[in-house]
Amino acid sequence: MVDYSFRQGDKILQELLKSGNKKDKYVFTNHLKSRANLRKINLNYIRQMLLNEEPLGVLSSRKNRFKLFYPSENHIDLDLIIVIAIDDNQKIIGVTVYEDKKTHREGIK
């Protein structure tokens, strides 16, 4: 398995944002879909953020996994966090999703 660096992961994400045909470049796992449903996070909003918007931040969490930070759709004090993996074919796999206080990303206590 390819071990993508932070820069490589960011480059792959940028290519997805610029791509005209995004259909075969990403997939959401059943886990992400069930967590979105459980946590009442709109799946279409998740897709829109991932495919069309620059993240507020990107954190490399472990081998080939990245946390992407976006504004929450419904809560001004929360970030939407989409955890993705990137496979050997540079396909983005949405692993899970949750919301967390944006002060964590901002480093404010």
Notes on the structure:
With 109 residues, the protein is an alpha+beta fold. The chain contains 4 helices and 5 strands, in the order H-E-H-H-E-E-E-E-H. It has helices at residues 6-18, 30-38, 43-52, 102-106, and strands spanning 26-28, 57-62, 65-71, 78-86, 92-101. A 5-stranded mixed beta sheet has the order 1-5-4-3-2. A hairpin with a 5-residue loop joins strand 4 and strand 5. The radius of gyration is 13 Å and the shape is globular. The chain starts with 5 loop residues before the first helix and ends with a helix. The model has no long low-confidence stretch (mean pLDDT 93).
Summarize it.
The chain has 109 residues and is of the alpha+beta class. The chain contains four helices and five strands, in the order αβααββββα. The model has no long low-confidence stretch (mean pLDDT 93).
